[in-house]
């Protein structure tokens, strides 16, 4: 069901879900999603909770089941792991941790390594994120990686 969650994490999700399933019908109100995620040590903003509510309840039934919650949390866990990996990769471009990473360096590295993209494609993504690849620098690696991952997964 969820390769990124271990048995303990799934048990914790099930326990919190059961506590909030007041009438034991196997459903919890989407308004409880933020409370559940905070109880699981995630810290989404109100805007992120709103987007997650749409994902967990795409038909707008105002409720969700336990399996939907487990799937959602597994995706969040995978996203968190991916962000950590992206930040580590960016930090490897910046041996002097007290300085920023020029986007020119990022564009150059991304066009040469891994699943290569053309410089034009990379520049387009960077601009879509609101940066000027010629003049801006990355000074918040985690923030940039979160925006990049959200852009890639949400279109």
From TrEMBL:
Domain of life, per lineage: Eukaryota
InterPro entries: CALM/Myosin/TropC-like, EF-hand-dom_pair, EF_hand_dom
Compartments, record wording: Cytoplasm, Cytoskeleton
EF-hand domain residues: 8-43
Chief site of localization: cytoplasm
GO cellular component, one term: myosin II complex
Keyword check for Acetylation: yes
Gene Ontology MF: a single term: calcium ion binding
Alphabetic keyword roster: Acetylation, Calcium, Cytoplasm, Cytoskeleton, Metal-binding, Repeat
Signal peptide: none
PANTHER family: CALMODULIN LIKE 3 (PTHR23048:SF0), MYOSIN LIGHT CHAIN 1, 3 (PTHR23048)
Family: Belongs to the centrin family.
Function: Plays a fundamental role in microtubule organizing center structure and function. Component of the infraciliary lattice (ICL) and the ciliary basal bodies.
This protein's name: Calmodulin
Taxonomic source organism: Euplotes crassus
Lineage, opening ranks: Eukaryota, Sar, Alveolata, Ciliophora, Intramacronucleata
